[in-house]
Amino acid sequence: MFDTIFIENELKKNPRVDSILSRFKNSKVKYLERYDSVWGRVKKPYLSKRTNLNLFLANKKGQLVKEAPNAYGVEGEKHFYFIHAFNCIYECQYCYLQGYFNSPDVVLFLNHDEIANQMQTVLDQHPEETVWFHAGEFSDSLALSHITGELEAYWDFFEKNPRAKLELRTKSVNLKRLVHLKPLDNVYASFSLSPESATKDIDLKTPPLKARIAAIRKAQKNGHKIGIHFDPVIYKESVFEEYNNLFSSLNDGINLNEVSYFSLGVVRFTSQVYNEAKRNYPSSPMFAAQFIKSSEDIVRYPRTMRAWILNKLKDQLIGHGVKEGKVYLCMED
Predict the structure, then answer these.
(1) Which domain holds residue 215?
(2) What is the pTM of this model?
(3) Interatomic CA distance for residues 329 and 271, integer angstroms
(4) In the predicted model, what is the mean pLDDT of residues 195-208?
């Protein structure tokens, strides 16, 4: 999977590094003082990840927990994300990481204790509020969790702090670690789902839709709280029919009433990411509909079109038995 594994010198004796190296015995290993002395220094084409993907093992410095933008999560509560990794093994054509970082190489940060300490600081700053901490802003939160050991590192924090909530955002079906952990009322595995056609044509290298629904069912049976994101919705003439089929498949495969929340959001880019995605995937079906650029430098469908799409999909979802109060619109003012 990884051509070369770069390791910061201060991690040479870290047992987690030894565990990771044991899984990639054919990868070359190099040591360096700081990961960012190499990673991202020179622009590396995003699609080079198909043939030459490297891994960096590092300790994250500076701010490890950041406040999330408005409309990021469930309404009425504080939302933050924590930085546990950079980049992803999947290749979703709309992914904003292709225009955000100079390199597609994966960085795994191993200083989870320091990240948990910063989460505690944030929680203490909001003593009367529920505070969400989201994993998966810059990388899939479960795809490599079987090698990082990070879930175990955070579980103790959330078990001791019921006022804090953890969301693990994922397109993965990797439950190897999750199913062996005690379900907590304040920890949610949230799965991003798209219709089968988008999963095949746009969400490249991600698990098939049926496999993701099976993973949700397995996580539910193990007692874990579930969230589901229908985001990003990409418009096509058959979009409502395809999402209705997706909702039906979900209804048949899992207990929808036990899902804690659902989000709906349409595809969106910064102009930089939009231009990068057009270069990387010029014939992608995600560019078929009209986009406009806002004064905030966001490229997305016109407001009336977004409202029409999201409201109709929300009505369809409610028609499948989902309570309206469980559905929120993502990144919409």
Answers:
(1) 59-329
(2) 0.95
(3) 22
(4) 98
